[in-house]
Amino acid sequence: MIDPHMDTVTILGLFAGALTTLSFAPQAIKAWRSRSTADLSFAMLLLLLAGVLLWFVYGVARGDLAIIVANGATAVLVAFTLALKAQNG
Amino acid sequence: MIDPHMDTVTILGLFAGALTTLSFAPQAIKAWRSRSTADLSFAMLLLLLAGVLLWFVYGVARGDLAIIVANGATAVLVAFTLALKAQNG
Predict the structure, then answer these.
(1) Which residue ranges does UniProt annotate as crossing the membrane (chains A, B) (predicted)?
(2) Which of A66, B3, B8, B65 has its CA 20 to 30 A from that of A30?
(3) CA B56, CA B82: separation in Å to the nearest integer?
């Protein structure tokens, strides 16, 4: 799957991105399963969504694959969790 | 505060980093004030801490100020929230 010519630092960045993106999976799944999002901070989710979208733009401006992939994927997960929070309070 | 010679893209990155780092402030404050962290996913916090620490290493490898500052600061906030979660369950 990983392009053998990709430099080690990019692979490090892709791995870091996988962790930070995946780190949202348990929270999104927990919010989806339990429908209990009372302890989740709406402000946090909103700020985070804005932040990862800006990081995405930063990645594009720098042509940095790891930043583009990680923040694009995280934005999808955060938006999903935000929708659940909006729905369930 | 911002170095006038800093290029626009770096400033964009610092701003994105401020958002994603600040996005953890409400969650850390909420966890600190309410001591109620039941809905917070321990797995998420652990994965996120590992991820932002790796991003920090990535930033150093790339010499990318925005990534270094954002992920260093986020690591501190996430570690604090993780400690509260460990303490309060």
Answers:
(1) 40-58, 65-84
(2) A66
(3) 18
Question: How is domain B9-88 classified at the CATH fold level?
Answer: Monooxygenase (1.20.1280)
* C-alpha–C-alpha distance, residues B41 and B20, integer Å: 18
Asked if the Cβ–Cβ distance from A54 to B15 is below 8 Å, we say yes
Task: Provide ipTM, 2 decimals.
Answer: 0.81
Which of B89, B46, B54, B88 lies closest to B71, judged by CA? B54
- The identity of residue B34, as a single letter, is S
**Residue A3 pLDDT > 70, yes or no?**
no
Contacts of B81 in chain A (CB under 8 A): none
Decide if B51 and A17 are in contact by the 8 Å CB cutoff.
Answer: yes
- Which positions in chain A touch B6 (Cβ < 8 Å)? none
pLDDT tens digit string along B24-55?
A: 887 788 888 988 888 777 888 898 899 999 99
